[in-house]
Design goal:
By secondary structure, this protein is α+β, with helices and mostly antiparallel strands. The chain is built from 6 helices and 11 strands. The protein has a domain of about 180 residues. A hairpin with a 2-residue loop joins β7 and β8.
Length: about 260
């Protein structure tokens, strides 16, 4: 009899524990994307001319829509507190579009480069993430764990992901963790992505698709295109200025690539 009495409360405990632990595989996430644009300017005559017109931070909102193994990520709106000059700074951000299919392991990314929309269609590249034990924070009501990765040998990425949302994606070109990425910081881009709201209702699942793209290129072809068109754009005969211009060029490349 004692054995039976033990089983009953144990069964009740595990039932409610499993009921409380909900794993989400569809919904929408709103991200606030914040960039310190003054730090991206560097120094020099051009920076001196426009820095008084720019606000320190450029802030925008983007929406990730995901269902099962697919997602889209695109621009939603600018922050109301930004002036028009700051909104127009790199306004081509509004044209960015990311589609990922993690089941078939392919993606379609649309980017505005030199006033032309470039369509990148390729297999999904891999991030070499390292999970950081013992570090966590709450974002948009979800408990998140920390991870980090390095791109191009020197670009550190710090991310926070939640295992409560099983979709392995995140904002922009960040993905590949055992849960949805709700927070990202890339110090060398002076940019952070942070989830402000997660919604589990109202998702139009039919809208989670890549749409149409007439002409596409691979990541390798896109990298060659960007490198070719920017090789002489940021250069100077002065060694110190040349170094700074190359850093600005690199930041532009990383921004375009992500």
């Amino acid at each position: 009899m004692k054995f039976k009495l033990f089983l009953f409360p144990a069964a009740i405990f595990f039932y409610f524990q499993s009921s409380a632990q909900q794993f989400i595989d569809k919904g929408t996430v709103e991200y606030q994307v914040k960039t310190n644009v003054l730090k991206t300017l560097g120094s020099g005559m051009f920076a001196d001319i426009i820095k008084d017109k720019l606000q320190q931070f450029k802030t925008a909102y983007y929406t990730l829509s995901f269902s099962d193994d697919k997602s889209t990520y695109k621009f939603s709106d600018w922050d109301n507190g930004m002036n028009q000059f700051t909104r127009n700074w790199n306004k081509n951000d509004e044209s960015g579009f990311w589609y990922f299919d993690f089941k078939d392991e392919n993606c379609l990314i649309k980017k505005d480069f030199n006033s032309s929309i470039i369509n990148i269609s390729d297999s999904i590249p891999r991030f070499n993430w390292k999970l950081i034990p013992g570090e966590s924070r709450e974002i948009a009501g979800f408990n998140c764990r920390k991870a980090q990765a390095i791109l191009y040998d020197s670009v550190y990425i710090f991310a926070f992901y939640t295992e409560e949302i099983t979709f392995p994606g995140g904002p922009a070109g960040f993905y590949g963790l055992p849960g949805t990425i709700l927070g990202v910081t890339v110090p060398r881009l002076y940019t952070s992505w942070i989830a402000t709201k997660v919604s589990l209702t109202g998702l139009n699942e039919a809208a989670v698709n890549p749409g149409k793209a007439k002409k596409t290129m691979t990541f390798k072809e896109f990298t060659a295109l960007v490198t070719d068109r920017t090789s002489d754009m940021f250069s100077s005969s002065d060694a110190d200025q040349d170094r700074e211009l190359r850093e600005i060029r690199d930041r532009n490349f990383w921004n375009i690539r992500l």
